[in-house]
Write a structure and sequence with these properties.
3 helices; mainly alpha; single chain; N-(1-d-carboxylethyl)-l-norvaline Dehydrogenase, domain 2
Length: about 45
């Protein structure tokens, strides 16, 4: 994923961590660590 990000390519962040966060929200489950990692990585990738 780091190499993809460095090369400006699409990463798997939504496929893996994003899926966990969205599925957890849908089920009413708290996943604060995954949410933090997801937000941090998305922020870095969009910068």
């Amino acid at each position: 994923m780091q190499k993809d990000a460095e090369d400006g390519k699409k990463t798997e962040i939504d496929t893996f961590t994003g899926y966990i966060v969205k599925a957890a929200r849908k089920q009413g489950v708290s996943v604060p660590h995954h949410e933090r990692v997801y937000k941090a990585l998305k922020g870095r990738l969009q910068a």
